[in-house]
Amino acid sequence: KQKKHWPLSQEEYRRYGRQMIMREVGLEGQLKLKRSRVLIVGLGGLGCPASAYLAGAGVGTLGLVDGDVVEDSNLHRQILHGTERVGMPKVLSAAEGIKSINPWVSCRTYESHLSAENVMETFLDYDLVIDCSDNPATRYLVSDACVVLGKPLVTASALRTEGQLMVLNYPPRPPGDTTGGPCYRCVFPRPPPADSIVTCGDGGVLGPVVGLMGVLQALEAIKVLTKTDPISKEAADGWAPTEPPSLTIFSAYSAPQFRSIRLRSRRAKCATCSVQATVTAESFTSGSLDYIQFCGAIHSVNLL
Amino acid sequence: KQKKHWPLSQEEYRRYGRQMIMREVGLEGQLKLKRSRVLIVGLGGLGCPASAYLAGAGVGTLGLVDGDVVEDSNLHRQILHGTERVGMPKVLSAAEGIKSINPWVSCRTYESHLSAENVMETFLDYDLVIDCSDNPATRYLVSDACVVLGKPLVTASALRTEGQLMVLNYPPRPPGDTTGGPCYRCVFPRPPPADSIVTCGDGGVLGPVVGLMGVLQALEAIKVLTKTDPISKEAADGWAPTEPPSLTIFSAYSAPQFRSIRLRSRRAKCATCSVQATVTAESFTSGSLDYIQFCGAIHSVNLL
Amino acid sequence: MAETKPETVDVMDITVEFTGGLEMLFSNKRKHNISLPSKDASGAPANINFLVEYLCKHVMKDPRKDLFVLDDTVRPGILVLINEADWELEGEGEYAVQKGDNIIFVSTLHGG
Amino acid sequence: MAETKPETVDVMDITVEFTGGLEMLFSNKRKHNISLPSKDASGAPANINFLVEYLCKHVMKDPRKDLFVLDDTVRPGILVLINEADWELEGEGEYAVQKGDNIIFVSTLHGG
Ligand SMILES: [Zn+2]
Ligand SMILES: [Zn+2]
Q: Which of A211, A278, B95, B280 has its CA 20 to 30 A from that of A190?
């Protein structure tokens, strides 16, 4: 009977007390976080800190997608993967780390790379997606699926001494609704030439640089989730008005280190989020979308 | 014999490869990190991510100072302390987490709060200090000791949705040398009234906000350490010229979120770093410095 | 634009921001657009000291003035930033406020 | 200041920054102070397209021009920012550069 009056257990009150006393969260915000399901695509340098801080904050369900195993060369920046877990699938290693941080979080692991074939079923259950991937093909795929399924997207990337972050498709209105936030294709209608792509493996990255961007992703996700109730969002058109869309740029050795850039709104001819959208739920399964081909062969010799 | 030609083991090359291929680090920078000894004061919301990323980067020795034990209410933001370690001294819990991230790092733990009596002996062996403490008395104490002993200081703080960061006493020239970087007393010659102080316990804090500042501290420390060789710094006057001193301000719900503020240089009448300095090595042990009294009783009723 | 009679008050538009918790003393609003009189009562150009006095009198509704000013200046633990620089680089309280200036009052944080 | 004869080239000072790895194409220098001719060859006011052409010809020493321009405009994957806003908010390549402008070319990153 007492449970009816106390929506959280005593241990949860103690655990989350320091964020619940803030007016930006409160009991209401904490319950929203608990009801939330967040999908993290990529458990590398971004996904490790992003999932660690979302777990700490008490997000109810974390979905973890990654097909790789932990390698020695990951350890300097992927702080959720202990040295003893080298060789283990990253999603399982991350789930162990998350359980240790907060056993109240339920983890679902997807031990494979995201593809046009599996993206719809993988995303369907989640309220928000965090793109922590490391290649343009996945970035277009994740963004397209978020628009089609109406999920807000927190995307970030890092390389060497720099990082970038955007909150996309927020508010996540249907394609053709110009009041929705821009998608990845609005900002980058054409993919970069394949020979201009550099991965962290090739170009290197400072651990705290990618760590910073991952922590910022967790923060932006918490801001969205505590504003919006994932359960009631359909009923109330849930998504509150937000700041205009922006790109945060970080550069460790520049002054100032951080810049905030105003981004465009939805592109009138966007292939994904406009009235003229050609990317639809069907196109994923029909095989008409070949993200690898769209972005060109990756892992070629590259210079930038 | 082969060891002479390979200053790092094969496993270290694999582990640090992704940062060593960057020109900002390289083999030389990696060796500087390995030779470095960094002291972290406070293993809470700032100290956890700061020490995790410094361990990942391969700093040779991490000193950990904290007299507290892990509590339930720490877990949402202090991601190095697993739930199973509630009740354990924070420095021991952090050392376990650090060992798991990188067994090559040597940890020294100081299971007590910093005081005027123990600060000189504690700091003496280290090349750089990271202030992750949570009260003004400790912040003045840490800064004073850094100036007297000639250590650069990376200090940060966080509360609710905001964070602040400064690199102080850098370059760490002797008191009276106006080319040295400003110290905490240059920026804040007088302590704030005790009734204006709010701790994270009282005011609350968002986990990723304090996490962000801790990761930034690790980054600034790595920048200083890879520029400067801790071993040879006396010989070569080691400390390279840097950006002018600045304060980074973060505010999660403001636009822009980050600001960089130009700070003053050393204050001509600073009690610690000027020619008129009254704070000296002797004053710590003589009992003439009472930091608690200087800052007033803490943990009183507070509002801001 | 038109001629100003002696008794009309010339004002200049500036932005004033409060952060680090100080916004709680100012109706929980971080950014304020202020039309500051160009001259103080004695006819001298408005400086930061005058701005602080003006904010206390006309903008701050919270009665706890001593959490903002102490001994006629901003209390210890508050940094004043003039156009993204520490006010100590600009002449502190004597700095003559210019039209369009951005003045930030930052309460320093201590949590960790 | 003085009268300008028809053959002298009027220039305006702007800052151009490269980031996201693009600085490697520009002598590893992130921030460049550029004195840009105020008008292009046809006498039209210098716009961003002209600036890009100018940077290729006079500033970029790296021969790999196609990592910066493609089909006469900046290649896909580079954002152009005019005074901290996406150039698409300002008219893209047609935006007439103003004295004192800050133009940033950002190569997007993909690592994670
Ligand atoms: Zn779009
Ligand atoms: Zn000083």
A: A211
Structure tokens at A137: 């093909």
Centre of ligand 1 from the C-alpha of residue A170, in Å = 11
Contact residues on chain C for B133, CB-CB shorter than 8 A: 112
C-alpha closest to that of B197 among B254, B135, B241: B135
* pLDDT for residue B204: 95
Given a contact cutoff of 8 angstroms between Cβ atoms, the answer to whether B87 and B69 are in contact is: yes
Backbone angles phi, psi at B252, to 5 degrees: -60, -35
* Residue-wise pLDDT tens digits, A162-187: 999 999 999 999 999 999 999 999 99
Angle at C52 between CA C51 and CA C58, to 5 degrees: 80
**Helix or strand (DSSP H, E) at A223:** helix A207-227
Residues of D in contact with A42 (CB under 8 A): 112
| Cβ pair A208:B215 closer than 8 A | yes
Q: How far apart are CA A12 and CA A104, in angstroms?
A: 9
Q: Give yes or no for a contact between A24 and A226, defined as CB atoms under 8 angstroms apart.
A: yes
Across the 304 residues of chain B, what is the mean pLDDT of every consecutive 10-residue run? 74 96 95 97 98 98 98 96 97 98 98 95 97 96 98 97 97 94 96 86 94 98 90 55 86 94 94 96 86 70 40
Determine the distance in angstroms separating the CA of B210 from the nearest CA of chain A, rounded to an integer: 10
Which one of the ligands is nearest to A146 CA? 1
**A256 upstream amide cis, omega within 30 of 0:** yes
Q: Are A107 and A99 in contact (CB under 8 A)?
A: yes
CB contacts of A156 in chain D (<8 Å) are 112
pTM score:
0.94
Neighbours of ion ligand 2 (CB under 5 A): B 183, 185-186, 270, 272-273
Orientation angle between helical segments B207-227 and A47-57, nearest 10 degrees = 150
Nearest CB neighbour to B21, from listed A16, A75, A204 = A204
What are C's interface residues with B at a Cβ cutoff of 8 A?
Answer: 19-22, 24-25, 30, 64, 66-67, 70, 75-79, 81, 84-86, 88-89, 104, 106-112
Strand ranges, E, within chain C:
11-19, 31-37, 69-70, 73-74, 78-82, 85-86, 102-107
Q: How far B142 CA sits from the closest chain A CA (Å)?
A: 24
- Which helix (H) or strand (E) element contains residue B167? strand B162-168
Residues of A in contact with B47 (CB under 8 A): none
| Ion ligand 1, residues whose Cβ is below 5 A away | A 183, 185-186, 270, 272-273
Q: In sequence order, which residues have a C-beta less than 8 Å from that of residue B33 and are 6 or more positions away? A: B25, B57, B58, B59, B60, B222, B225, B226
3-class DSSP state of C32? strand
Q: What's chain A's length in residues?
A: 304
What is the fold, at CATH topology level, of the domain defined by C11-107?
Ubiquitin-like (UB roll) (3.10.20)
Inter-axis angle of helices B90-101 and B47-57, nearest 10: 30
Domain boundaries, chain C: 11-107
Please tell me the number of the ligand nearest to residue B267's CA: 2
Quote ipTM for the complex: 0.93
